[in-house]
Design brief:
Rossmann fold; five-stranded parallel beta sheet; globular; Dna Ligase, domain 1; six-stranded antiparallel beta sheet; about 30% helix; D-amino Acid Aminotransferase, Chain A, domain 1; alpha+beta
Length: about 450
């Protein structure tokens, strides 16, 4: 069988790699692709091939010409732009919701109203289109809030606020300065919750639901909480999207998995299938909070795998991913048996740190960061350590270089969480980003507390 994964980040590289492990798959295509793949064992032997295609029409034509059996769309933007709809019109099997259904992620207000209407627990919230009214609300509400861009924002659209000043600044950035573009035309202002974050995933096939009976914990802030001086230098609250992850989550128990399915997953899926009448085929991501009093709340709902959660869940999953994908297409998820290995996995993300610019200095991700730093040390990693690439490029004179703020994932497994942490950190320290403007010093940085 042949599979095409549409995407270019770490999650998409991981999807391609996991399909490549299937006993049924002889070829995986990745488009628009990631040049780091060609440096991996599967890339070197041609099991995963990067194909450059500029339009969705090119993707559809390629799939038909090359007899591609399944297309998995890993990211939210091509889903919202209608790639699934186009491929299905051509008779191509796909994993991912149709354009209409992406509203569950691209319109937070719609989804919040939906969940509240069916009694799924979630924080108190209000929706605003007028920044002045939003400012008045946070000045008078009396408790801490999270300010969220209503539309897609690459996983970075939620600003967790410590005080009124933080909330007013978030409203200014999202609604007035439009840091997330049109996604900031409306904001959802939500009560801030305290507790433990849980990332929970389910597959849907249009008729059945298959909750993955395993979940992970994502680390969304750019720096470790102890690094207060750096956090202040960057301007305070830094929710940048995932900077690391571990699996299984320390709270995984059959009791809690059953409770999540009963209280949150089943009512939501029932509404999608029966009230909305949607034949949803693909992944749903539930971002949950479990507070100290054992109350569950939904703080986000997405229409694809999380990043970096998928990178560790995929390593933990022993069920053949291609078999899951075909069951999604065929409506047979009720026949799939989940198998999980006994290992613990830790993903630490290597980011662009402080580097020398032509004039002055780059602060590093999530501020202004440099590009074109040569990546070295990948050949020194221990056997069994997985590397998934995100923000990289390939240039003739240097080879693999940095191109984004979050550059690559280092994932290690071990029978214990402590062993997986130690192995991940032992190996990421073998990698360096060579700062050519600063005596070839290492300008890579990473969080030190993933999994603690």
């Amino acid at each position: 069988m042949k599979v095409l994964v549409y995407g270019s980040g770490g999650r998409d590289h991981c999807l391609a790699d996991t399909y490549g492990d299937s006993q049924h798959v002889e070829k995986v295509y990745l488009t628009p692709g990631n040049p780091g793949v060609t440096y991996t064992p599967k890339g070197k032997r041609g099991l995963i091939e990067v194909i450059r295609m500029a339009t969705f029409e090119e993707v559809a034509a390629f799939c038909l010409e090359n007899s591609v059996d399944l297309v998995d769309v890993g990211s939210e933007n091509p889903l919202e732009e209608g790639l699934i709809d186009l491929l299905n019109e051509k008779g191509i099997r796909t994993i991912g919701p149709r354009q209409e259904f992406v509203r569950l992620e691209s319109d937070r207000a719609f989804t919040d109203d939906l969940l509240q209407g069916i009694g799924v627990p979630k924080p108190e919230y209000q929706v605003f289109e007028d920044p002045d009214r939003a400012r008045d609300y946070v000045r008078n509400i009396g408790y801490q809030v999270v300010v969220k861009a209503n539309g897609l924002a690459a996983g970075k659209g939620a600003v967790v606020c410590d005080d009124v000043e933080d909330a007013v600044t978030a409203i200014e950035n999202i609604m007035v300065k439009k840091v997330f573009g049109d996604s900031g035309d409306r904001v959802v202002i939500e009560e801030r919750k305290y507790g433990t974050e849980i990332s929970f995933f389910v597959y849907l096939d249009g008729e059945h639901v298959m909750p993955l009976r395993m979940f992970a914990q994502d680390y969304k802030t750019a720096f470790d909480p102890e690094d207060r001086e750096t956090i202040e230098r960057f301007g305070g609250n830094l929710n940048t999207g995932g900077t690391g992850c571990y699996c299984p989550h320390k709270l995984v128990t059959p009791w809690l998995v059953n409770r999540i399915i009963k209280e949150i997953v089943n009512p939501t899926v029932n509404t999608i299938y029966n009230d909305l009448g949607w034949q949803y085929r693909g992944v749903l991501y539930f971002g949950l909070n479990l507070d100290p009093y054992d109350n569950l709340d939904v703080f986000e709902l997405n229409v694809r795998h999380g990043d970096p959660e998928w990178e560790v869940i995929a390593r933990k999953l022993s069920t053949d991913l291609f078999e899951i994908g075909m069951a999604v297409c065929d409506g047979t998820l009720d026949q799939v048996k989940q198998v999980w290995n006994e290992q613990h996995y830790v993903d630490v993300i290597a980011m662009e740190g402080r580097s020398k610019a032509s004039r002055g200095w780059n602060k590093g991700y999530p501020g202004r960061y440099g590009k074109g730093h040569r990546i070295v040390g990948l050949d020194d990693l221990e056997r069994g350590v997985a590397v998934y690439f995100a923000g990289v490029d390939d240039v003739s004179e240097k080879g693999l270089v940095t191109y984004g703020g979050r550059v690559l994932h280092v994932i290690a497994g071990d029978p214990t969480l402590e062993g997986a942490r130690e192995k991940a950190y032992r190996n990421i320290e073998k990698i360096a980003f060579i700062d050519h403007n600063n005596d070839d010093n290492n300008c890579m940085r990473f969080r030190k507390t993933i999994g603690l």
